[in-house]
């Protein structure tokens, strides 16, 4: 038996989540079993903890799209008992049982090794949000962004992706402008390395002119919607936007003019199906460059019991930084 946060469907179509003992025979198929130490909370987890999202196919369900822990059984040639591992993505926690449990079973090719010098708790303080932020930084750099080029905009900055993106960009020597709708987070964002705070309202209006003054040397966008459309018109010549999220909406009410007249690039970032080599590249950079003391300041500690409440909060944009769930 192991402890898990189980979501069940009610008779009226709603859902309820509670911590229970579950038999190990209920685990999904897979060649590696992991004793989960830490998990975390992402926007998607908020959806999977409640009835929304359409991500979960079968109930009862154990959410948790990422976890870090120790291998306890393995039929995979890649992993041995005692190895420290990280899992993010591959639709674990959505279509399969995930990390909100003491035990998880997955396929070996989905795991990456915990980088040397990093703890499983730190790995989950980074989590899917932080991995995605790193993938976005790498994409911008691969498209030519270099320190000294000018301010790099981060939207949804006090969220999970935005907080880690702000810290990673600043640590790599970039000037960071952080967009937030919560002025009470200004000091927090400056502490992470933001040099400028841009109030959300300044970018909230829909596009009136397809091109505005050239402001940003790059952008990591967690918000999408009207804000992304506005930002495209403010990018400098040849600059890139890494599109990561849709916290403000999935529509893109933009024109193609910034692409045609300014050579702006819109780079899509997906963390879920990212090949293993790209994941390992990103985790290696995170281990080398993320200021872990700053990361600690973003951490909101939590237990499995806290997750139904926190899941509802993240869907309202009410969580700051990174929730780290101690599963043990
Ligand atoms: P969070 O909820 O932690 O952060 C989102 C932030 O966006 C909020 O903290 C808030 O920041 C801002 N925000 C919220 N609502 C609005 C709004 N209506 N308009 C403008 N800004 C808003 O989520 P995560 O950081 O975990 O994820 C961010 C997005 O990235 C989500 O859409 C998520 O699904 C996506 N994502 C995508 C991944 C991928 O592989 N592409 C992987 C991980 C996440 P503030 O209060 O500072 O304004």
TrEMBL record:
Superkingdom of origin organism: Bacteria
Any one GO molecular-function label of the UniProt entry: acryloyl-CoA reductase (NADPH) activity
Keywords recorded for this protein, A-Z: Membrane, Transmembrane, Transmembrane helix
SMART domains on file: PKS_ER
Chain ranges passing through the membrane: 123-140, 152-172, 237-261
Record NCBIfam families: oxido_YhdH
Pfam family, one: ADH_zinc_N
Keyword Transmembrane helix: yes
Protein name: Oxidoreductase, zinc-binding dehydrogenase family protein
InterPro entries with a match to the protein in the record: Acrylyl-CoA_reductase_AcuI, ADH-like_C, ADH-like_N, ER, GroES-like_sf, NAD(P)-bd_dom_sf, Rhodanese-like_dom, Zn-ADH-like_protein
Rhodanese domain sequence ranges: 139-186
